[in-house]
Amino acid sequence: MRINEPNRVGMINAYNKTGNNQVGKSGKIPMGKDEVNISTEALEMQRQVEDVNSPQRREKVEQLKKQVEEGKYHVSSERIADKLLSFWKKL
């Protein structure tokens, strides 16, 4: 690598050009609008979180807790397998 290149000044000028911002009449740099884009996946996650806090959801959870405590809650292995398969097929 050569340190004393004759075109070294050109490289310094290239860096200086990127630092030049166009200043308007008011003396401020013009700014664009801020923008936020939320993906469909994020919207779905937000909807699921809102569903967790709904009164119907809380009532259902309480019923399931009661069934588990009493030993009356049973899920068939076929339902579990179906849910697992549908989950993995989505991916």
A few lines on this structure:
With 91 residues, the protein is mostly helical. The chain has four helices and no strands.
Outline the structure in words.
- The chain has helices at residues 8-18, 40-52, 55-70, 77-90.
- It has 91 residues and is mainly α.
- The longest helix is centred in the last third of the chain and has 16 residues, at 55-70.
- The protein starts with 7 loop residues before the first helix and ends with a helix.
- The model has no long low-confidence stretch (mean pLDDT 80).
- Keywords: Bacterial flagellum biogenesis, Cell projection, Cilium, Flagellum, Repressor, Transcription, Transcription regulation.
- It comes from Brevibacillus fortis.
- This is Negative regulator of flagellin synthesis.
- InterPro entries: Anti-sigma-28_factor_FlgM_sf (IPR035890), FlgM (IPR007412), FlgM_C (IPR031316).
List key phrases describing it:
mainly alpha; 91 residues; 4 helices
Task: Identify low-pLDDT runs.
Answer: none
Question: How many separate helices?
Answer: 4
- Taking all Cα atoms into account, the compactness measure Rg is 31 Å
**Separation of the first and last Cα atoms:** 50 Å
Number of strands: 0
| Average pLDDT over all residues | 80
Q: Summarize the helix and strand pattern as letters.
A: HHHH
Structural class: mainly alpha
**Major beta sheet summary:** none
Overall spatial form: elongated
- Portion of residues within helices: 55-70%
Strand proportion:
under 5%
